Amino acid sequence: MSLPIDSNPSFANYAHPERLVSTEWLAANLSTEGLVIVESNEDILLYDTGHIPGAVKVDWHTELNDEDTRDYVDGERFAALMAAKGIGRDSTVVIYGDKSNWWAAYALWVFTLFGHADVRLLDGGRDKWIAEGRETTREKPVAVPASYPVIERDDTVIRAFLPEVLGHFGKPMIDVRSTEEYTGERTHMPAYPEEGTLRGGHIPTAASVPWAKAAAEDGTFKSRAELEEIYLGEAGLAAGDDVITYCRIGERSSHTWFALQFLLGFENVRNYDGSWTEWGNAVRVPIVKGIEPGAVPAGYGA
Amino acid sequence: MSEMPAALAEIVEDFQSVTEPERLEMLLDFSEELPELPARLAEHPDLLEQVVECQTPLFLNIEVEPGGEHRVSLFFSAPPQAPTTRGFASVLHQGLDGLPAAEVLGVPDDMPQLLGLTRALTPLRLRGMSAMLARIKRQVSERVAAAGS
User: Which of A44, A45, A193 sits opposite B131 (nearest CB)?
Assistant: First the structure.
């Protein structure tokens, strides 16, 4: 049983307003049956310092990933995780988190790989809830174990792997990392440890649109008109485009994936979760350094 | 040879003697014990060095006594929404504050890996911890060199 959608007028222009809820809506629905609130953060301890009443935690690193296969959990483990968190297949799930919902969007993307139908983001995330002085608690809810079917993960629709990205040249890609990461700038100073990627730069032809451009100052998503100006205007996407987004490990690009798919209504957006960590280190995979997107590499593209 | 100072060794042992969920709770406790910056630093953020490898803002400053064993004082600043970063800073504070410079410089570089958190925390997070320790040591060396011996 799905909860009613948030009829907040600021969501009305989005392609899929049913994918967002406001802090007001959530505060009014905290104890509504059929709703499970999930907090998903970059910081593994943050939930324990205080969370929205009734919220359960899902940790992206230890609960959604499989450490041996460098992949997401399979259908059986996802079903077990959902059951343990009190989430049924027809639950309405609202996810929120730190850092303007990076990890929350990432968790929502993984839920979507398993086809969970009603999963929404809290617009503005954890920071907005706290900034508004809303109630938090350290009391961990006792999840009522639910039953969740074993669903095979579908990696074909919203997920891209490296060979598919190589086959994508000629079609638009969005690099959502910072400008310094996009250009491949590095700082080299003694005792300033480097990140673990061998090469700095970006995937040839990818447009640079740092994820934060989609977010307003309070961490909520910008209006549809503003988002269109950024992605259709500046980045040159056109309605109907087949788009791939990436970042360093796929979390910030989940935020952009969400904006493109659910707020602007693009129907073919895939998140390349291998992202720069894989691409920057892969053998015989071309990159471009500097601020220009660069051309389709020889031998690739249509 | 590197050797773990006694106070830090005891903290590491405490972490190692409990289960992973308990380690995370301990780290949370540490995060709440991180002292505030003294006013002279809080009012001069330019004196603090940012650990850019951390995923959340962390700033640190090291002072060493001008003479003798150059005993070290450590100062950290990290926001409450970064409890993991605060927790590790607090471990280093409780394990190293007030020790002679040579002992701080002798802390094994792999000390962050010894807390039993390598599964629960991401590799980037662990690199942030190693970077914090590396920057502390570099500042200690610089301050000692500046003080002369």
Answer: A193
Indicate which residue of A173, A176, A247, A263 is catalytic: A247
Does A153 participate in catalysis according to the annotation? no
B113 touches chain A (CB under 8 A): no
B140 CB within 8 Å of a chain A CB: no
Rounded CA gap, B44 and B56, in Å?
Answer: 20
- Residue whose C-alpha is closest to residue A27's, from A133, A116, A99: A133
Tokens 């000390």 correspond to what residue? B111
Sign of the dihedral through C-alpha A161, A166, A170, A174: positive
- Say if the Cβ atoms of B83 and A46 lie within 8 Å: yes
DSSP string for residues in A169-189: TTS-EEE-S-HHHHHT-----
pLDDT tens digit at each of 302 positions of chain A? 689 999 999 999 999 999 999 999 999 999 999 999 999 998 999 999 999 999 999 998 899 999 899 999 999 999 999 999 999 999 999 999 998 899 999 999 999 999 999 999 999 999 999 999 999 999 999 888 899 999 999 999 999 999 999 999 999 999 999 888 899 886 444 454 555 667 889 999 999 999 989 999 999 999 999 999 999 999 999 999 999 999 988 989 999 999 999 999 999 999 999 999 899 999 999 999 999 999 999 999 86
In angstroms, rounded to a whole number, what is the distance separating the alpha carbons of residues A226 and A264? 11
- Which chain A residue is nearest to residue B31, measuring alpha carbons? A45
**Strand residues in A32-144 grouped as ranges (E):** 35-39, 56-57, 65-66, 71-72, 92-96, 119-122
Kindly state the helix (H) or strand (E) to which residue B91 belongs, with its residue range.
helix B83-96
Asked if A191's CB is within 8 angstroms of B27's CB, the reply is no
Distance CA(A67)–CA(A109), nearest Å, equals 19
Is A48–B24 a contact, with Cβ atoms under 8 angstroms apart?
A: yes
Nearest-angstrom CA–CA distance, B71 and B63: 8
Exposed / middle / buried, residue A239 (Cβ in 10 Å: 0-12, 13-18, 19+): exposed
At the topology level, CATH places domain B6-147 in: Sufe protein. Chain: A (3.90.1010)
Coil, strand or helix: which one is A125? helix
What's the predicted TM-score (pTM) here?
0.91
